[in-house]
Design goal:
heterodimer; A: alpha+beta; 2 domains; twelve-stranded antiparallel beta sheet; about 30% helix; elongated; B: mainly alpha; rod-shaped; DUF3068 domain-containing protein (chain A); PorA (chain A)
């Protein structure tokens, strides 16, 4: 009986011990993935910003500029690309919609971002674009990989269509979460005009004919929760200028937009709550289950060995053999 | 010999469990019908 029990315990011990590395190094990369059908929006605001008045072609102070950023997973496109990429893929159709204080559109920039659902590495396929221009991304955008490390990452900048390092600046506490702070500075760079302009009749082509060019610089900061790789807060010190050409009436440059763009408070709260929930799920695969099953496996193994040792121990001294006395003969 | 069989059973069960969970995978669902926003939402 004891021997059977020890064998059952041994099987359970091996089951648990094997589950530990299998969960961490097999199940985690296969199960921790960005859902292909993810839909997410975030609102950012720049208070007391400077905005170009296209009527007068002069910069003016405005109380607020709002940026609505939407990410929408295209499931059908992801399934199609997966067949050739041979890995799980997410296709995000994104839109950055900028709205002035009067509620009118300032600019809108669509993007299509294709990436590996677990590692966040870019996947190159037809349709990858920024504002209709085909791009070939390197590095990450919008989100960091699961189990983000304390190091610099390559981050794609949609305005310049280039990738440059985003530097790890330290760790801090943010609303009960440990976050890694990252910062990227994009120096003044000439960038294309948005395809959608705020004034009817003005197109990138008509602006190009005047010789006026658009320049941009930004300092962007993200506070990233390292387990999920999700930014819980973001801000940008963003500057745009129009330079040269006949459109500016002899001026060298005019500010098109300047402002400190920050996530709206209700979206910060919502994102923190969402990340806290998802963090628990990722930790289950990377920490709770592997450690718990390993400990349980060792405990069961010890119990199994104890039972086996007891089963082998003799129960007591063997009875002495009874011998019949021989008849005595003279 | 019986101990080896027991250990192999435990290992196979663990592999079977993990492979089954992996095969079930994460549901991809359908593309959200919600549009890319061109208005400022009142709340998340």
């Amino acid at each position: 009986m004891r021997r059977t029990a020890s064998l059952v315990l041994l099987a359970c011990a091996v089951f648990c011990a094997a589950l530990s590395p299998l969960t961490r190094w097999y199940a985690f990369p296969h199960l921790a993935r960005i859902p292909a059908n993810q839909y997410q929006d975030v609102v950012l605001e720049a208070r007391n910003a400077t905005l170009l008045d296209y009527g007068t072609m002069r910069a003016k102070k405005v109380p607020q500029v709002t940026i609505v950023q939407t990410l929408k997973g295209d499931v059908a496109a992801a399934r199609k690309i997966e067949k050739t990429a041979h890995r799980p893929v997410v296709v995000w159709n994104a839109l950055s919609y900028v709205q002035g204080p009067d509620g009118k559109m300032v600019s809108e920039v669509p993007e299509r971002y294709i990436f590996d659902a677990h590692s966040q590495a870019p996947v190159h396929a037809t349709g990858e674009m920024v504002d209709g221009d085909p791009v070939r991304r390197a590095g990450i955008e919008f989100k960091w990989p699961f189990l983000t490390q304390k190091r610099d990452y390559e981050y794609f900048d949609a305005q310049t269509r280039t990738t440059s390092p985003i530097h790890y600046e330290g760790t801090r506490e943010f609303r009960g979460l440990k976050v890694y702070c990252f910062e990227q500075t994009v120096p003044w760079t000439r960038v294309p005009m948005p395809k959608s302009m705020p004034v009817k009749g003005i197109t990138p082509q008509t602006v190009a004919r005047t010789g006026t060019t658009r320049w941009y610089t930004t300092v962007r900061r993200f506070w990233v929760e390292p387990v999920t790789g999700a930014p819980v807060y973001g801000e940008e010190i963003h500057r745009e200028e129009l330079r040269g050409g006949t459109l500016l009436g002899g001026r060298a440059e005019v500010t098109a937009f300047a402002g400190d763009v920050k996530m709206r408070e209700d979206y910060v709260e919502h994102t923190v709550a969402l990340v806290k929930h998802n963090r628990t799920l990722v930790l289950a695969l990377t920490s709770y289950v592997p450690r718990g099953t390993l400990a349980l496996g060792l405990l069961l193994l010890a119990l199994s060995l104890v039972l086996e040792a007891r089963a082998r121990r003799p129960a007591g001294p063997a009875p002495a053999p009874t011998t019949r006395p021989r008849p005595v003969s003279a | 010999m019986r101990a080896l069989i027991a250990a192999a059973t435990g290992l196979l069960l663990a592999l079977a469990l993990v492979l089954t969970i992996d095969a079930l995978g994460t549901p991809s669902g359908r593309t959200s019908p919600k549009p890319l926003l061109t208005t400022v939402p009142a709340h998340p």
